[in-house]
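Our preliminary data section would be incomplete without showing what the modeling component actually yields. Below, a chain of 249 amino acids is followed by its predicted structure, encoded as tokens that our downstream tools consume directly.
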Amino acid sequence: MNGGWPLPRWIAHRGAGKLAPENTLAAFRLGAQHGYTAFECDVKLSADGVPFLLHDATLERTTDATGEAGARSWSELSRLDAGGWHSAPYAGEPLPSLQAIAGFLRANGYALDLEIKPTPGTEAHTGAVVAAEVLRLWQGHGHGQPAPMPLLSSFQPEALRAARQAAPQLGRALLLDRLPDDPLAPALALQCVALITDHRLMDEALVRRLHGAGLRALVYTVNDATRAQALLDFGVDGIVTDAVDRLGP
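Predicted structure:
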């Protein structure tokens, strides 16, 4: 990718996170079947420090268990059903570890926007562990096509700071769901390479400002073709979407 940038313009949100259970290998595989070569997902830590994929702090929305996900060991988490909530064909689909996702992406040469989603109170620890694990899992030769190193993104500046200390060579992106007075300042302070905003916050002027500062401009979660085209006309560098069957590659 241009200038070491790892991501193409279209990125599948949580795999194909509406058509299949989000943040599972099944969702990644379905996104790939629709031609996607880049994915976004959420990662947090088990009680014993294993990075695994889950969006929420708690388990009830997307598994057959309840309570705080980060309070359970990976041995417990790995046995949960993370697919049955979505639909019967996916019943029994497990929560994937970051290691499992890395194996799939590296074998196929796919790219990743990895959102660090810490259990509240563990921001720095999660950022450091995830960054170190990304280096371990993606370095070396592996099998299949060469896969780009993931982009590490987060809404939590503390997680990004810790990731920078643990693995300064990895690209980082700050996520924003509201714009501060100067949205570039926190991203530049964290030495990020990109800013990722709610798509409703992005306009042509902000894209121009980001590009002028040497930052990439990405948006989430765009499921409308007209809005996607407007954002592309603004010059955005990446669009995260659920609509993998209707938009993108």
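Residues 2-241 form a domain with the TIM Barrel fold (CATH 3.20.20.190). The beta strands are 10-13, 38-45, 51-53, 111-116, 151-154, 172-176, 194-198, 216-220, 238-241. Preliminary results of this kind motivate Aim 1 of the renewal.
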